[in-house]
Write a structure and sequence with these properties.
Layout (H helix, E strand, L loop, with lengths): L1 H5 L3 H9 L5 E5 L6 H16 L4 E5 L6 H9 L6 E6 H10 L7 H4 E17 L7 H10 L5 E4 L5 H13 L4 E4 L3 H9 L5 E5 H9 L3 E6 L25 E9 L4 H15 L2 H9 L3 E2 L4 H22 L5
Parallel strand pairs: 1-2, 1-3, 5-6, 5-7
Antiparallel strand pairs: 3-9, 4-7, 4-8, 4-9, 4-10
Helix pairs in contact: 3-10, 5-13
Length: 316
């Protein structure tokens, strides 16, 4: 990245050198306590500590994360408003919502990939469900009797549950929440049977013994939960659903500012304490250039169009 900056025109280098001249707002498109919030606050804290920037998280939850993304897309492209997007609201929501106000491939600029994580299917520790097979057997015996919570309609996590229902040929009832934390509380209280969640949102309750993990949805087991089998291992060949998190600016943000933020975030992701903190949340840190991250966005955007259409899911 240093080489890339060195060949920019002099005026561009000057703009990058003076950035940031004031606090940066980091829009968090989910309520406090969930996986997106945890990773956003880690990045904000470390940029403040290590890079000596002032980065202020601003939670703007609702509508599966699309409200916060919409706000970022409308912001001035000055480099002082960025958002922690994820697969949910960047590549799934556009195919679910009929009147979404943004096109992620046109209205936002990929800045820095932060981490990726599998989705996890969990139940309360004292639940009668000990394995994923127990859930399937019970659902076949009593269709629609079992409930599963998610952080919202249209999220990758919600669709992971729907895709599993289809793969297992069962009927279980989805209960959407406004964020992971609210869903978590209802599972712990026994108000819903299962929780489909990002691993960062659920791992502390798993580690404390309050939640029992039944499966992870990625192709491989999670390094954070190596004893938990994948859905594919339990009889559902090629099942693979995971999510990613990354920073975006409004489209039109100067490329020299994009490059500077990318370089700073990638430096953080290489630090042992940051890697450890991300792993502790059940996620895997992964640095990319803005071009690599932009390519991932476009590839997943096209891929999930087919997945959403095949599921038949829509949100008004």
């Amino acid at each position: 990245m240093a080489l890339a900056l060195s060949v920019l025109p002099a005026h561009a280098q000057g703009a990058a050198a003076s950035y940031p001249a004031k606090p940066i707002r980091l829009i968090v498109p989910f309520p406090p306590g969930g996986g997106t919030d945890i990773l956003s606050r880690l990045v904000a804290t470390k940029l403040t500590e290590v890079s000596k920037w002032t980065v202020v998280p601003d939670n703007r939850g609702g509508a599966g994360g699309t409200i916060g993304i919409s706000e970022a897309a409308r912001a001035a492209p000055t480099g002082y408003d960025m958002v922690m997007g994820q697969k949910d609201n960047m590549v799934v929501a556009p195919w679910l919502y009929k009147n979404l106000s943004y096109d992620p491939t046109k209205d936002l600029t990929a800045v820095a990939h932060v981490a990726y994580t599998p989705v996890v299917i969990v139940t309360r520790a004292d639940s009668k469900f000990k394995t994923l097979k127990d859930v399937v057997d019970a659902a076949r015996a009593q269709p629609d009797a079992i409930t599963f919570g998610s952080p919202g309609n249209g999220t990758t996590i919600h669709l992971a549950g729907e895709i599993f229902k289809s793969a297992a040929n069962i009927k279980i009832r989805h209960v959407p929440y406004k964020g992971s934390n609210a869903a978590m509380m209802d599972v712990l209280a026994g108000n819903v049977d299962l929780l489909v969640s990002s691993l960062p949102s659920a791992i502390s309750q798993i580690k404390s013994g309050k939640l029992r993990p039944l499966a992870v949805t990625s192709a491989k087991r999670s390094t954070s939960l190596p004893d938990v089998p994948t859905v594919a291992e339990q009889g559902y060949k090629d099942f693979d659903v995971s999510t990613w998190y990354g920073l975006f600016f409004p489209a039109g943000t100067p490329p020299e500012i994009v490059a500077k933020v990318n370089a700073e975030v990638n430096k953080l992701l290489a630090q042992p304490d940051v890697k450890e903190a991300i792993h502790a949340q059940g996620a895997e840190p992964q640095a990319m250039t803005p071009e690599q991250f932009g390519s991932l966005l476009k590839t997943d955007y096209a891929k999930w169009k087919g997945i959403v259409q095949a599921s038949g899911a829509t949100i008004e």
